[in-house]
Amino acid sequence: MKARAPHIKSRRLPGPKAAAWVARDKATISTSYTRSYPLVVSHGKGAELTDVDGNVFLDLNAGIAVGATGHAHPAVVKAIQDQAAKFLHMSGTDFYYPQEITLAEKLGSLVPGKKPKRTFLSNSGTEAVECAIKLARYKSGRTQFIAFIGAFHGRTMGSLSLTASKAIQKKGFAPTMPGVTHVPYADCRRCVFNLKFPSCGMACVDYIEDVVLKKVVPAEDTAAIVVESVQGEGGYIIPPPGYFQKLQALAKKYGILLVVDEVQTGMGRTGKWFGIEHWPGVTPDIVTIAKGIASGMPLGATVASRELMTWPPGSHGNTFGGNPVSCAASLATIKLIEDELLVNTQKVGAYMAKELNAMLERHEHMGWVNALGLMIGIEFVAKPGTTIGSPKIRDAVEQECFKRGILVLGAGPSAIRLAPPLVLSRAQATTALEIFEDAVTHVERTTRAR
Prior knowledge:
Aspartate Aminotransferase, domain 1; 4-stranded mixed sheet; 2 domains; 7-stranded mixed sheet; Aspartate Aminotransferase, domain 2
């Protein structure tokens, strides 16, 4: 069955109504926002989005990996409506309501680890990370953190200090939170040590012990290692087998907490509930969750063992976190992922990865594909057969995709990320891949003509 979307009716994008909204936005909205292309949304259903001019797009970014169940899923909409008719807010840090408690119980059963767990609910990924920072410092009595080059953990001052994705994100905001040391991530394609896996012996982990903990920051002062199971904003970089097992062993050796950021990778995105589950036997001390947790409603979660997340009342809290409407949306989201979307993610993700890897043979500027479930990165290179990235080609492909009616986004310096709603069908995936390849073909021909 052929997918209905995309259908572009405007002669050029943006259409006249969208262009008018973009002009109004320019006059009133903070210029700090990043907009890759002029999409002005009217409504959506599943993996389709319609703009204010009636153009229908196939959505392969899901609001940056947020809309796990697609746009306006009936079960999620009903959960939101039913809860909104009961009460909208009562501040879960001061009072009790079943929705918040039920969700915490459910998350505790899903997050890896056999120990009973506790959850702090907030509004976003960056807040979930801020909670992890405070909890790690409070419980360890230590002040220092180790984070990774290429990481993105948020833009509030604590999480920003852990972030090392783009310099612009920190420009003008120094000093950020002190006490963070950044180390190389396990990017085997572009190893900073110029080694090859597996003969490298995980030199990037050894570097932490042999250099950082001996020459930069004492292990006894280090509260936590904070790491994404797959680097998201950094370029959809997947560490090799055994990496997190060795990192966990290092952390345990020195009594350092392991904080795993699952904001983009969690809630079924990679074909498992959490990205870290692709590395068997790894149990994080703290897990941060957001994005796909509530299908677009604002919600973040920080999950740790019951023992670890025992701290005095008033040591951390917020007003809006664990909003009952967001909790209801999250519970409906989790049920959908459990019942059908986790399997769909595995099947459609494997299909897309296979087709994209086949494309590598036909397109000299497509370097490689990183894929786990429906978290897929396609790297574009300046010279065939090299690892020299081409932001210019990547950006051009992104724009050509938009013109043709599929929504993709960049990640890292030179990758395209595909993070569609987990409801994406095989038929929609086939259509999207055909259009994507057409966009790549156009850009490569234009590049050669110059």
